[in-house]
Automatic annotation (TrEMBL):
This is Adenine phosphoribosyltransferase. It holds the Pfam family Pribosyltran. CDD domains: PRTases_typeI. Gene3D superfamilies: 3.40.50.2020. The lineage of its organism: Archaea, Methanobacteriati, Methanobacteriota, Stenosarchaea group, Halobacteria. Keywords: Glycosyltransferase, Transferase. SUPFAM superfamilies: PRTase-like (SSF53271). GO terms for molecular function: glycosyltransferase activity. The keyword Transferase applies. InterPro entries: PRTase-like, PRTase_dom, Pur/Pyrimidine_PRTase. The keyword Transferase applies. Residues 97-213 form the Phosphoribosyltransferase domain.
Length: 237
């Protein structure tokens, strides 16, 4: 890890600790992290940065649990099981914290392109692309007028509806490494189409990540297509 990477990790840990401190005393934060309250005070107030070992632990273990808890608190389900995650996907600062935690937790290799689906996946995709210093590409259900060449993927759903996604062919090059991300994975149909687009582009998939998994069907479907890591920040049964 070079100096810039160490500094980025330390700042990410501080951002996670500051988020946790918003609803906790330093003593409570100490119980969560296992770190002394005095040290936490200095980290949160910017007087000193945590060492790289401590920073890695905060981002990878404490960070994932804390962000998952925050995510659960922000997500709502209606009586028919539909998910309202607007409290998450509209909060870019929260998503910016998710990106390093996801990268550390699931050991995603740094991609050339982060690929997602419009529209709710775009803010998460932007956070992941910014963290990895990668390009962001998002597939849409309609073609853009000025674009001549598209990669197209379609399938007929169990309901009989045909789902089609289009991505400008120039968005992903042959040989690119691609991380597929989305805000929600339930049946896995959208992720299957995104993976198909990546494969049509002759790209290498480095992973599949979702903020929320509802059940195991979608995750299992993605794992059947790629050997790359597949993970979600939190899972609802």
């Amino acid at each position: 890890m070079n100096r810039a990477e160490k500094a980025a990790l330390q700042l990410q840990a501080v951002a996670v600790l500051r988020m946790l401190k918003e609803t906790r005393t330093y003593e409570e934060l100490s119980d969560v992290t296992g770190l002394p309250a005095g040290d936490l005070n200095r980290y949160v107030n910017g007087h000193v940065l945590p060492g790289t070992d401590r920073a890695s632990e905060v981002v990878e273990s404490v960070g994932r649990e804390a962000l998952a808890d925050e995510l659960v608190a922000r997500v709502e389900f209606d009586d028919e099981g539909y998910v309202d995650n607007s409290g998450v996907v509209f909060d870019q600062s929260f998503l910016d914290l998710v990106a390093p935690v996801a990268a550390e937790t699931f050991a995603f290799e740094s991609p050339d392109v982060v690929l997602t689906a419009a529209t709710d996946g775009i803010t998460l995709g932007a956070a992941m692309a910014s963290f990895f210093d990668a390009r962001l590409a998002y597939a849409k259900k309609s073609k853009e007028t000025a674009v001549e060449e598209f990669i197209e993927s379609r399938q007929r759903l169990a309901s009989g509806i045909e789902l089609t996604y289009y991505l400008p062919a120039s968005a992903v090059d042959a040989g690119d490494t691609v991380l597929v991300v989305d805000d929600l994975i339930r049946s896995g149909e959208t992720q299957e189409l995104l993976l198909d687009i990546a494969l049509q582009a002759d790209a290498d998939v480095t992973g599949v990540f979702a903020l929320i998994a509802v059940g195991d069907e979608g995750m299992d479907r993605a794992r059947a297509i790629t050997d790359a890591p597949v993970g979600a920040l939190t899972t609802f049964e």
